[in-house]
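Here's my example:
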Amino acid sequence: MRLGFVQKSAVWTAAAVVALSGVAWFVLHDLSDAEPGETERLLLMLHGISAYAVLIAIGSLLPLHVRSGWHRRRRRWTGGSTLAMLVLLAMTGLVLYYGGEATREPARWIHIAIGIACIALFPVHALLAATVRRSADSAMQDGAGESRSRCVSANTGRG
């Protein structure tokens, strides 16, 4: 099921902000030698707030988009994998926020790994849908043109 412009924009914007803020925080926190500062704190806040927006956006997809795709047996692998990864990201995010010291490090690395995988998988799911849709649209146009030419041939007696 195709998403409307507003819903698609909300999903992509929220996903982009959470992905970019997460990657930026990871680079500053783990790959940079700089001392932690205000920028890291702001990135982490932005990441958490945009994660809530992603959860709301994905929740808006469940009743129609996800359900329709599942019943039609369309892109179940990429859609199901993306949804499962988002659930794991939410769970590890909660562990990072509310968990103790013993769970923090494993949850952080699981969160980072799944987040990076999700950054790759989410666009694949959308691009597959767009590719299939383009193929179906061109097939419909080809079929419509072919049908018109048969009608013209039948009406003129040629064919």
In short: Residues 101-156 form the longest helix (56 residues). The CA atoms of residues 82 and 118 lie 6 Å apart. The mean pLDDT is 83. The helical segments are 5-31, 38-72, 76-98, 101-156.
